[in-house]
Write a structure and sequence with these properties.
Radius of gyration: 30 Å
Largest sheet: 2 strands, antiparallel
Oligomer: single chain
Helix content: 55-70%
Strand order of the largest sheet: 1-2
CATH topology of the largest domain: Four Helix Bundle (Hemerythrin (Met), subunit A)
Number of domains: 2
CATH class of the largest domain: Mainly Alpha
CATH architecture of the largest domain: Up-down Bundle
Number of strands: 2
Order of helices and strands: HEEHHHHHH
Strand content: under 5%
Shape: flat
Number of helices: 7
Length: 188
């Protein structure tokens, strides 16, 4: 028997051992214990390999930080940490958001061509302004209104197809963001 044949047999037996080891190990990863006699049921435990049991697991941070209606860290980044500019931008946002929401409420979703296009532009403008200051719920609400208007639903079915719901969610988000912005503006 040559050296090449011995190495091939060793490799084959090693792979069989590792496959058998994995196959034998898998059923032991979960096993019932009958220690729970008060509740009358089996307790299933997960037996992790020892190297995984030694890892100190830590919770993940939230995917989107919830700092309130306005992400103040985002606002600070966008205004280069200039408190005066921050206040000016928030003041402009409050005025603009209020004006846009009133205009969107006055222009029905079933308005003909030009009025619909104007409403789409208003919703899109509000979406951009809200993203700029970190009012992401307002931006999402404005995006919902914009998407609903762009769908071009049948004018007689416009309010039953989601426009009223999208507009209501936008109203709530704008009211919340404007209240937060005004509270920031009242600070000395």
């Amino acid at each position: 028997m040559g050296d090449g044949q011995k190495q091939g047999e060793f490799a084959a037996s090693a792979s069989k051992r590792s496959i058998n080891h994995i196959r034998d190990w898998l059923p032991s990863t979960s096993s019932p214990l009958s220690a729970d006699t008060e509740k009358g049921g089996d307790i299933w435990i997960n037996l992790m390999p020892l190297h995984l049991q030694r890892i100190d697991w830590m919770p993940s941070p939230p995917l989107v930080p919830d700092d309130g209606p306005i992400d103040l860290r985002h606002l600070a980044r966008m205004t280069l940490d200039d408190a005066g500019l921050e206040r000016e931008v928030l003041g402009m946002f409050v005025k603009q958001a209020t004006r846009i929401v009133e205009a969107l409420g006055a222009s029905p979703a079933d308005a003909p061509g030009d009025a619909r296009r104007d409403a789409i532009v208003l919703a899109h403008t509000l979406k951009g302004a809200a993203r700029a200051i970190g009012a992401f719920r307002v931006a999402d609400g404005a995006a919902g209104v914009e998407a609903t208007l762009r769908q071009g639903v049948d004018p007689s079915q416009a309010f039953s197809q989601g426009f009223a719901q999208a507009l209501h969610e936008l109203y709530d988000a704008v009211a919340e963001a404007c209240t937060a912005a005004e509270a920031i503006l009242r600070r000395p």
